[in-house]
Amino acid sequence: MTLTDLQSLYPDFCGDFSPDWGLPTRADFERLEKEFSVVFPPSFIEFQTLHAAQMRAVGEGFRWANAPEPHLSLESLLRQAQERGHLALGLLPFWQDGGDALAFDVSAAQAEPPVVWCMRDGSAFALADGFVPWLAACYEDLRRDLMSHFNL
Question: Rounded to two decimals, what is the model's pTM?
Answer without folding.
Answer: 0.90
